[in-house]
Amino acid sequence: MEIIYSYNFYQDRFVLDIIENNPILEVRNLKKNYDKLSVLKDISFSAYAGSVISFIGSSGSGKSTLLRCCNLLEIPQDGEIIFKGEAVSWTNKTDSRQLSDKKQIIKFRTNLSMVFQSFNLWSHLSILDNVIEAPVTVLKKDRHIMRDVAYSLLEKVGIADKADAWPAQLSGGQQQRAAIARALAMEPDALLFDEPTSALDPELEQEVVKVIKDLASEGRTMLLVTHDMQLARDLSDRVYFLHQGIVEEEGHPDSLFEKPKSHRLKQFLSAAAS
Prior knowledge:
Elements: E1 2-8, E2 13-19, E3 23-34, E4 37-48, E5 52-56, H1 63-70, E6 78-83, E7 86-87, H2 102-111, E8 112-115, H3 127-137, H4 143-156, H5 172-185, E9 190-194, H6 202-217, E10 222-225, H7 229-235, E11 238-243, E12 246-251, H8 253-258, H9 263-273
Parallel strand pairs: 5-10, 5-11, 8-9, 9-10
Antiparallel strand pairs: 1-2, 3-4, 3-6, 6-7, 11-12
Helix pairs in contact: 3-4, 3-5, 4-5, 5-6
């Protein structure tokens, strides 16, 4: 058992958290197909509170699909997804299985908050309202309280001065930081980042990288799909290398990047470094 203090934006105070040595998220033997194309083949991993897990690999290796399955945006044909000991409920166990519990879907998506590559901000809402909308609508939070929380979160990611702006008025890096603030507003147990910097030029990319590193330093649980090998190396407690839908290699970043075992990972890291 681990005891930590964490900051609660809604209560404006530090609160005591008692963390059992159980995973926040478990994925067991996950399989995902698109028609006859097998995208994920028997993937398993566990994410514990305060840990950062990175998934690396070439395009088409299944990284983003895996993350979307964790958030229930994609439905796997087989395998289990377990959030804090609660397994996803399915309508049946066949290839056509569907999610059966709407309340559970909301619970999973709220507590495993996704940050997308393409930002996905609502263009008709100000940046402040983008951060406020989901907690008010989904979590039934008070709008006036959430305004203060949203300002604090925008300040946290360095764009409080853009609160009244429209998404189209922001740079890509600023939009991604707004998306991170929006995810944080849901007070998730874990943040899921799907290639958060791949749509940005190098200068704007570093703005977002700084925010992600700051979040990691706070001890937040994060799952990160990234093409940025340095980011994965700097932040991760464990790295998974996916190749053609399987975990080709996994391990601590020091050993995985310094002493890769598989020929395919060696090729991938060599290409990434060039």
